[in-house]
Amino acid sequence: MIWVVLGAHLIWFGQDSGVAPVKLFGFIDYWVISVVLVLGWLATIHVSGTRDPRVLGTGSREYQLVFNATFAWFGIVAILATLFKIDIARGYLIIAFPLGVVVLLLSRKLWRMWLTTHRQLTGQYSARVMVIGSAPAVANMVRQLRKNPDAGYHVVGVCIPEGSELPPDIDPTGLYFGSLNTPVDDLRHAGGNTIAVAGGDKLRTSAIRQISWQLASGIEHLIVSPNLIDIAGPRIHTRPVAGLSLIHVETPRYAGTRRFLKESLDSIGALLCIVVFSPVLLVAAIAVRTTSPGPVLFRQERVGLDGKPFRMLKFRSMVIDAEAQLVDLKATQRDAGNTVMFKLSMDPRVTPVGKWLRRFSIDELPQFFNVLKRDMSLVGPRPPLPSEVANYAQDVHRRFLVRPGITGLWQVSGRSNLDWEESVRLDLYYVENWSMLGDLQILWRTARAVLARDGAF
Q1: What pTM was computed for the model?
Q2: Numbered ranges of CATH 3.40.50.620 in the chain
Q3: Distance (Å, rounded) from C-alpha 301 to C-alpha 386?
Q4: Residue 133: Cβ-neighbour burial (10 angstroms; 0-12, 13-18, 19+)
Q5: Most buried one in 102, 306, 335, 341, CB count within 10 A?
Q6: 417, 27, 398: which is closest to 231 by C-alpha?
């Protein structure tokens, strides 16, 4: 914050302002104003909960709070200047605000990378969790927490009913096995500080209440899983009613201002990308046309919004009779993709130029024209083939509530390396919880995934 405000001061008032200070009202040095701006900004960031351990290191909530706090502080400054008719330099504030947002978010990102690295490698800076409940529920929570160590929950032990066993895929190494009768004592023996209730018929409300009473205030914590799968925090609200803690879950909304903003981002973003990548589009089209027989573009029927089919565009990266060869290839042992989506890491149908196009995802650039036609979005679920839709379970059809995307959670979380269940879970999570900030994060992660070329076949 000091560097941002100092930079804004020097940019607006010039380097000579240190020798010949600019003054407000003729007697208040703008350097004093800068100090007040930094202190007030720092206080606003602090009281807004941006450093709460519950938001640090994972999710978008931390970034939202930082932006909201910065916006609120500069709004307060602007309101005070108006009320008291203070003619503060507007350009000074106009430079400091956007610059401050960018630098703060970037610094938070760098610290998050440091934090998640320590969490993943050593388990440091994480809650030490004892998971309690029925064996299946405990196993599911342990599985998910171990899969996402950057979330900040390190499992140190479990408490399951006597006679129960964890599934063989749960590695018991390093786990303390306690009893549902003495979970708090077991938590302390395991060196933990958090009890996570995974659920099960052996744990009644009175037992959970007794556990909460036994925990040391401010040192030991209780987490209760509401058995709500893949629903993000902004849709969940807890409200005490008549002594009951009721969880309100808002239904997803795909209309109004949010939809308008998303469609505006799609149209403007797709148009800009077409202009920026036009040289790449031209070179790729020439390369495809001159190196193998067949059309430049490959048009394939996909299923989009509301289950309606559309023709998705890609640069042709395979030989002309690729679809005919698919029947024989499906009889071979696949080494990528999953049970529904057929993939081969070394697909013999891919042309030499096609391998290069796929390696950098250039074959997907024509899909920006699909976005302009409103068949697709920049961010959304993966556009499926009709043959894949025929194998969908009923709940998977929920992905058709939004337009399919050029990129999405599936693409930035492993692409072809994911199994079918995980691919579906990520797409449904996006549909249930989409937001503008989430879309921007996915677009940023897409650039990194494309450069890393992980899972791109």
Answers
A1: 0.63
A2: 126-227
A3: 7
A4: buried
A5: 341
A6: 398
Q: What are phi and psi of 383, to 5 degrees?
A: -75, 115
d(CA 429, CA 399): 9
Residues 6+ positions from 55 with CB-CB distance below 8 Å: 49, 61, 62, 65
Q: Which DSSP category does 341 fall into?
A: S
Q: Which amino acid is at 232?
A: A
> Which position has the higher pLDDT, 225 or 332?
225
**Sheet (strand 127-133) strand order:** 176-178, 153-159, 127-133, 194-199, 221-224
Q: How far is CA 246 from CA 46, 172, 242, 324, in A?
A: 29, 35, 10, 56
Residue 110 to residue 399: CA distance in whole angstroms: 33
> Which tokens go with 11?
């940019």
Alpha-carbon span 353 to 348, nearest angstrom? 13
User: Contact 157/190 with Cβ under 8 angstroms?
Assistant: yes
pLDDT in tens, 251-302: 666 777 878 888 999 999 999 999 999 999 999 999 999 988 889 999 999 9
Helix (H), strand (E), coil (C) string for 343-360: ECCCCCCECHHHHHHHHC
Give residues with Cβ within 8 angstroms of 151, minimum separation 6: 57, 58, 119, 145
Domain 126-227's class? alpha beta
pLDDT tens digits, residue range 115-128? 999 998 888 899 99
Assign residue 49 a region (left: φ > 0; alpha: ψ between -120 and 50; beta: otherwise).
left
Element (H, E) at 155: strand 153-159
Beta bridge partners of 155: 129
Q: Comparing C-alpha atoms, which of 205, 97, 196, 91 is closest to residue 139?
A: 196
